[in-house]
Each structure stands twice: as structure tokens, then as C-alpha cells.
Amino acid sequence: MMKKNVNRRNFIQTASLAAAGFYVMPFFASCKSDTSTRHPETVNKMNKDFIADLDLQLTALPSQTNIYPDSSTKTYSYRASIIKGSEDNLQNIEGSYLGPVIRVKKGDKVRVRYENQIPAESIVHWHGLHVSHENDGHPEHVISEGETYYYEFEVMNRAGTYWFHPHPHKHTGEQVYKGLAGLFIVSDKEEEKLNLPQGEYDIPVVIQDRTFNDNKQLQYLGDGQMDRMQGFLGEQILINGKIDNTLNLGANGKYRLRLLNGSNSRAYKLAWDNGEAITVLGVDGGLLKAPKRMSYLMLGPAQRVDVWLDLSQQSENSRIKLVHLPIPLDMMGGGMMNGGMMGNSSSNHLPYDTQFDILEINVGAFAENKDAQLPGELSSFNTLAATDAINKDNPRTFTFAMGGMMEWTINGRTYNGTEVAEEETVKLDTTEIWRINNGNQFSSDPDDDSGMMGGGMHGNGGMMGGQGGMGNMMQMPHPVHIHQLQFNILNRDADKVDDKLWEATKDGFINEGWQDSVYLLPGMQMDLIMRFEDYKGLFLYHCHNLEHEDMGMMRNFKIV
Ligand code: C2O
Ligand code: CU
Ligand code: CU
């Protein structure tokens, strides 16, 4: 349909089974050939009656990647091959540690034979997908090196940009950091009718930050507990797993950029450097009803946004950049904790409060899809109404905050295996409002000394821009994510958000459409409405700052 433009370098190559000769070499070359004779143990059973449309072998393994063009970096990678399906189902990102882009249609039956070949326990979570407990990648389902876990599910989600990553308790941050992540893109009939840009005009843009040592090897957290408390922040931005952040696109072309913030803890305030508005087509759970133009965009960890890029005003050989604009967040995390009471951090991470480049687009030869049109309407759907919620008068409230033992908690609790509290139990086939808030759970009264952090910290109380008090001092943004479903946002209350921070971010939030992750600023409160359908069982909700999650800012909710 769309021909390859040979004048252009593309991030993406369509994969074929034989094209598995990536730039990424298996770290232990002999591993792969061994597995066929070694018969890795399987943990759960394959269901022979499940007739898959797409049957994939997905292996997590140590790898070496040229993140920098001239050096080889030790990484982990997901590698996939098709057992049943078509070449269109898998797209490798050339030269990247990232897993392949898995492309499916709504209604497809998918089997994934996940083989763990990293020297640690792991399990794959399908972020954003509506699947059963057994297929969700719960930390209790981790498998050891050499074992295989079978996923079998039907794709029930709307067209949208979903993703997959490990979910072992305490080690998600490290494993994602080393490279384990990939996109899972769903299309459906409604979307197909729109004739949005496809093929080489539909481009994944995975944004991550990383820190390298002198040997160009990945460095995760520094020694201090504070790096962990704050969440990992890197010194370099990687796009699709590469230091080289340039995309070469055709003048006049129309593109769909699928942005994923795959960073462990960093959020971005994104804008075009030429001052043009960002045109948003979709969010986590698929297309919006209509395109939305925004002067800038806040993208928290785990969030996705599909952006329309029209290069028809760009001349050949020009360039535009997607940049991060300054936000006053350093005081919340790094500055406050590191510079304040907790001693200094060793890391030279990119400060939030500065502008830096995310993506550079070189406009090359003229593109072939110049006639592609931005539709005025994208999708029609009914959102959930507050009046449908069984708890509309008394929303279930979850507070994301620092707990008394200097740990990140949800309603004062941390993750404990399959434990689920009464207030975390919901009923199948009901609609509920969840009120999530980012606050201090013991005391917002600066004179109240009852918290276990003790009086010694009071001296620093003024650091938070006048809002003062011990409570605010220990606040950080929490990117809150709920498994298994997509919700609508009913309300975003920023009354208690620091004025400067709100001023700098308020036009970047999207409250429309279906979402599974939100960026909850310190002091912010949001009402989310969701419906529990199809599957009973245990699912997670947690902070998607992966270091917070690993420290236990994660809980189960149970659908009964
Ligand atoms: Cu993307 Cu439970 O996470
Ligand atoms: Cu998830
Ligand atoms: Cu958090």
C-alpha cells in the first residue's frame, strides 16, 4: 500500500521470522540453542482448545545493544517469533533493546509463550489490557529462569497503544531499566475506517531516561536510599532505546506518533519547539472523540498519547523538535530530599526545571501520504456517568503518601503478596468512583508532631514554596495506574497543588477519553470512574514510579 521511501532512514522495520538478526546479539550465544533440548519447565498449562489467531514465542534474555553507535551496552531484551500469525503482527525496532511492537486486532485470540531467560524471577504484564487475573502478569505468578508461562487471551480492548513490561515485586524498576518493555498496539474496525497514517507513517516513540557509566554501561540507582525514594532519574534521554533521537520523516507527510513514557519515574512536559500546538489523537485506552490541540502536554510514566504530525508546512531539509519544557518539580523530589534533610545525591540527572530535547525530526524528501487528512471526529463512545456509580455519594478513597516508616504507601499500606483489604474489594458488574489523592496521610498540621518522622525535620518545613509543614515536604508526584480496566476522569482537583507547579502544568493534562494511568501531582485529588466487568479476581493498582512500586506502593484490589 505504502511504498518504502529509500531516501529515508526509519526506526522501524517490519519483522519477519528470518529477520531476527537484530543489532542486538544474545548475550550468551549458546542459550538459545540449548533451550530446544532442555525442555524448560512450564508453570501453567497450555490449553489445546484455545485456537489462537496469533501464537507467539516471547523470550526475555540478556542482550548487548548499541545504544551508543560505537559501544556495546549490556541490556535485557524481549525477543519474539511467530508460531502462528502473520508478519504484520510483529515489528522490530531496529537496533533497540526494546521488545518488538506486537500488533493485533480487537477480537484476536492471542497466545504468548513467555520464556524467562534472564537470571531472575520475572513475569510479563500487559499494561492497559482487559484480561483475566491469570493473564495479567501478577507478581505472584513470577517464573524462574528457564521456565515458561502461557498467556491465552482474547483482545477485548479498543484500538489503542498499550504496552508490556515485567512485574516481579521489588524488581520491576531494574528489569524495565535494563530494557524489558515493548508496545502492544491494537486496531479495530472503527479506527480502520479513519484511514489514519499507517505503516511507516505510524511511528512508535518510546521515551526513557538512562544514566551510563564511563564504559557506556547502564547505571541504575546510586547508593543512597534517597535515589530510590525519589525514583530513578537519568542523565540522558533515549528514544526507542537509542541515544540518537532523530527521526527522518518526509516533507508534506502526515504521521501518527505513538508516544509512550517508558521512563521509570520521570514525567515530561512536551511541546514543539516551533510553538505549534500538539494535536492529540488518543490516550492510554485509544482514540479521543475528536482531536485535541494543546500548547503542551504532560506525560507521566506509563502514559501513552497518540499525536498527529503534519509536516505540510515544513520545507525539505528543515527540522522541528519535540522538547521538554521546564517544570518546578526538582524541589519536590531531588532538590528537597537530596539537598534537604537527606544528604546529597550522587547523580547528575537532568533537572526538571530546564528545557531539553526529546525528539528531533529531520524533514527529508517528500512523503507519499501527503493527502492523508486529520479527521474531525475520531471515535464515538459513551463515557461512564457519575450517576451510574454505586458509590457516587461516598467514593472509595485512596491516599498515595509517605507512611510513618518512611515508605511510600496507599492508605497507609504497602504491598503484601495476595493480601487485599476490605476497602479494596469491589463487586463484578458494578461501576464505582475512586477518589485518589496525593497527600500526607498522617498530618497536614505543621504543629502536629505525632508522625514518626520526628521533630527534627521541622526545621526544613519552609522548603515547599510557602505551603510548609512536614506533610508537604514529603510529597512527590505519583503516577497512579489501575490494572485490568480503562477509566474515565470525572474530576481533577488542584486546589491543594502548589501554585507554581499548577501554573506550569495545568494546560498539559487530558481529562477526556479512556485512561489507565494518571499523573497525580502533590496535593492533587482526582475522581476516576470505572466499571468492573467480565473477570473476577485479584488485580493491582499502584504507583507507576517504578521505584515507588518496588518499595511497595502497590496493592491488590479484588473483584468478587
Ligand atoms: Cu505498567 Cu502494574 O503496570
Ligand atoms: Cu498495568
Ligand atoms: Cu509514587
TrEMBL record:
CDD domains from the UniProt entry: CuRO_1_McoP_like (cd13852), CuRO_2_McoP_like (cd13879)
One Gene Ontology term of the molecular function aspect: copper ion binding
Domain Plastocyanin-like: 81-190, 227-316, 471-558
Alphabetized UniProt keyword annotations: Metal-binding, Oxidoreductase, Signal
InterPro entries cross-referenced by the UniProt entry: Cu-oxidase-like_N, Cu-oxidase_2nd, Cu-oxidase_C, Cu-oxidase_fam, Cu_oxidase_CS, Cu_oxidase_Cu_BS, Cupredoxin
Keyword Phosphoprotein (UniProt): no
Pfam family of the protein (one): Cu-oxidase_3
SUPFAM superfamilies documented for this protein: Cupredoxins
Signal sequence extent: 1-29
Top-level division of the source organism's lineage: Bacteria
PANTHER family: BILIRUBIN OXIDASE, CUPREDOXIN SUPERFAMILY PROTEIN
Protein name: Bilirubin oxidase
Organism: Salegentibacter agarivorans
Phylogenetic placement of the source organism: Bacteria, Pseudomonadati, Bacteroidota, Flavobacteriia, Flavobacteriales
